Amino acid sequence: MSDGESSADREVFESGYLESLSDQEFESRVRKIGELGAQGCRQACDLLYRTLLVERAEARQVALLAAMKTKKCSHLPLAPIAGLLRSRSLLVPGVAALLLAAWGGEAEQILVDSLADARGGSLDLYLFALANGTGPLDVGLFTPYVDHRSLSVRLASIAALAERGDASCTERLVDALAVRSEQTQVAALFALIAVGDARACDAVLRRLELDSTRDRGYFFSFIKLELTFLAQHVREHPEVLAAARRVTVRNWKRRTDPEQKWIARYLPQVSPESPDHLPPPSNEVVEEIRRLALEAARAD
């Protein structure tokens, strides 16, 4: 953006022109200014920030916060944005939390410091936002919430571990496998695939034994995730492949045609139609099924 264009944009904001636009026009204009901010134009970030200070309409606040989420805008003062975490709006606190997590550093620390006192829906908002941040973060921040009474808090904390955790959280994720909630169990499996280590193999095998006996197809998402995790650790613990094969062969008739085809394509080692002593899956296969599982998790 040239100096002339910067001045023109500033005049538009200061003249009240934006206030005269429809919400759709406002959002379009703000989005374009946000793109300039993402390219490193500090003046664009400043324009968005000044407008946020005076804007009171929820939809417009959300648009402004979303446009400012780029790290290129992280030089802006934090206090007014942190104040929006206490907004009574249904949307603004969540978008403000996502912005603070995206900015990282001191901005993200505001969310971290807020966890201990967060109540109601604020806690899962903060955890979800932190899951979407980047860079290293103490996994101990999230593990106390893995068995929280609120499902949304549990899922947000497990998602944060999946995105920003490391192998040190394996045992807490194993605990989550035992929670009587299918959503929690699936989230824990995704997280184990993302960051867990071989200490979870026995627990995942126990889940495979249980889920393989269920009705056809209904629990296949569990089985696919369980086999994906076990495949990641076959080279460290070759015995898990034989154990998985015994379970899968014993319950093969419960598997639907799509289930059997997935196993035949990626892990024929556990199919009854394959020789008993196939070599372990290649690193390429393991990486592909891991990637597919994590893509599915993030798509949800």
Q: Your description of this structure?
A:
This is HEAT repeat domain-containing protein. By secondary structure, the protein is mostly helical. Among the domains are: 1-74, no CATH class; 196-299, no CATH class. It contains 16 helices and no strands. The protein has helices at 3-14, 23-38, 42-54, 58-67, 79-83, 92-103, 105-114, 121-131, 151-164, 170-177, 182-195, 201-211, 220-232, 239-250, 257-266, 283-299. Helix 6 (92-103) packs across helix 7 (105-114) and helix 11 (182-195) crosses helix 16 (283-299). The longest helix is centred in the last third of the chain and has 17 residues, at 283-299. It is elongated, with a radius of gyration of 24 Å. The chain starts with a helix and ends with a helix. The mean pLDDT is 89.
The level of helicity is 55-70%
For the sheet with most strands, the description reads: none
Helical segment count: 16
Distance between the termini: 37 Å
Elements, N to C (H/E): HHHHHHHHHHHHHHHH
* Average pLDDT number: 89
Which word captures the global form? elongated
Low-confidence stretches: none
Strand content: under 5%
User: What structural category do the secondary elements indicate?
Assistant: mainly alpha
E-strand count: 0
Radius of gyration: 24 Å
Organism: Frankia torreyi
InterPro entries: ARM-like, ARM-type_fold
Protein name: HEAT repeat domain-containing protein
Structure summarized in a few sentences:
By secondary structure, the protein is mainly alpha-helical. Helix content is 63%, strand content 0%.
Question: What topology does this entry show?
Answer:
Layout: H1 3-14, H2 23-38, H3 42-54, H4 58-67, H5 79-83, H6 92-103, H7 105-114, H8 121-131, H9 151-164, H10 170-177, H11 182-195, H12 201-211, H13 220-232, H14 239-250, H15 257-266, H16 283-299
Helix pairs in contact: 1-3, 2-3, 2-4, 3-4, 4-6, 6-7, 6-8, 7-8, 8-9, 9-11, 10-11, 11-13, 11-16, 12-13, 12-14, 13-16
